[in-house]
Amino acid sequence: MHLIINHSSMVPIYEQIIEQIKENLISGELKENDMLPSIRSLAKDHKISSLTVKKAYDQLEAEGYTVTVHGKGSFIATNNQNLVQEDVNKEIETAFEAIITKAEKAGITKKELLELFEMLLEES
């Protein structure tokens, strides 16, 4: 698993770790029961605090994405594909809501918005 930490980003490092692990789950790079790097090794490799990595891992576990086995490490939880898909759906829904609000303020009709969306889908 490869993570890129942007030290100059406004996004806290622990959130960057969480998001990238979730992205790796969505892409299929990480699968059920895969072992995550140890807290110490991830911290050392990226020159960040072990507490920052621990905070990210604790959050992932609290959200049901990982499980920690004392003395063994942290692993991707089984049956978490539904959680991942739900997260993706929430992000898409939020983006659509923002677009709809912006379109309404700009006076774009639902029909025009749908036509634009269909045109973009055809291009992708």
Characterise the protein shown here.
The chain is mainly alpha-helical and 124 residues long. The protein has 5 helices and 2 strands; from the N terminus they run αααββαα. A two-stranded antiparallel sheet has the order 1-2. A hairpin with a 3-residue loop joins strand 1 (66-69) and strand 2 (73-76). Helix 1 packs across helix 3 (50-62) and helix 2 packs across helix 3 (50-62). It starts with 12 loop residues before the first helix and ends with a helix.
Tally of separate helices: 5
Q: H/E series, N to C?
A: HHHEEHH
The chain-level structural class is: mainly alpha
Unreliable residue stretches? none
Q: Indicate the overall shape.
A: elongated
Mean pLDDT, all residues: 92
C-alpha-based Rg, rounded: 19 Å
Strand content: 5-15%
Strand elements, count: 2
Measure the end-to-end span.
Answer: 28 Å
Strands side by side in the biggest sheet? 1-2
Helix content: 55-70%
